[in-house]
Fold:
Amino acid sequence: MPIINYLSTIEFEFGAISGIGSALSDVGIARPMLVTDRGIVAAGLVDQICRKLPKKSLAAVFDQTPSNPTEESVTAGVALYKAHTCDGIIALGGGSSLDLAKIIALMATHPGPLASYSVPENGSAHITDKAAPVVAIPTTAGTGSEVGRAALIAMIDGRKIGFISTHLIPKRAICDPDLTVGLPPYLAAATGMDALAHCIETFLSPAINPPADAIALDGLARALLFIEKATADGNDREARWQMMMASLEGGLAFQKGLGAVHALSHPLGGLRAPILHHGTLNAVFLPAVLRFNAESAAQKFETLRAAMDGDPAQIITELNQRLGLPASLGDMDVPDAIFPEIAEAAAKDHCTATNPRPATAADYRVLLEESF
Ligand SMILES: [Zn+2]
Structure:
């Protein structure tokens, strides 16, 4: 039976972070730990948040989020959270900080081991409403994790696995497009392509959720119109607002499930070397996956062709080129020797189940070769 969920409270406006103090008290957080990365600290955003909070109310700052969140960073974050008797989390950053914060909130309040809560170990049912409250503040426009119920973690055993539960949805999302003003062009393009991939993949997913389809198409239209402006001019505030909305809409829509693009990006994003950017991987995989799926979702493709005003795979290829993104996995220094294990992992990824065309490890091998 289709499950349709829209639960998030979202504050969306330029300057929205000035409401952080009341957002925290609304969701019952008195001693927050802030989860972020060192780049965000260096950019002065943590100081900016501190100034909006009652004096000395920030109990701890965990600024060790890796480029892709790891099991080790969860352990370190939980230890800091407990040492300072925190009662909730402010997640500030891109998708990695937001995902990591969700899993620290889980493991600070649930017994281990972490893997027992993951999708491959059928752990979603063990995730309860005891998860610590999270207020999520995205600083990139791409992930949608601020309204999503999922988080991805690279495990010590080498797997990159998903955790999914409505109890992981942040209690409040504060979307302030001012925080993305000045984002470097490459990051604006790569994170924007993640938002665009969420809208396309979730729209094509066969799960029944027409509200999500409509949100995905709206997000896609905004992303197509504004991604190049946001990339070309870091100070174009209209483009920042529109891309942050497209990202949010992608996040609201992908409760339907994603597809083969994300199934491939997840295991590659779990590699310790080379470190690969999630949005960039999605941009590179989209053309081959769109061609692979076209006949299995013929009616949806008609709508997609109309929304994109042309052949979707061709349009994405050309867009990637104009945005200065890599054209292939080879350009990203991904060694083709790892394709067999990546194909196996992709076939087991939770996003494979919601791809419009069934995809086997052999299919994934072909998609990897085509994207190389
Ligand atoms: Zn994504």
Remarks:
- DSSP finds 14 helices and eight strands in the chain.
- The beta strands are 10-12, 32-35, 60-62, 88-93, 134-138, 150-154, 160-164, 172-175.
- Residues 194, 197-198, 262, 278, 282 surround zinc ion (CB under 6 Å).
- The domain at 10-179 is CATH 3.40.50.1970 (Rossmann fold).
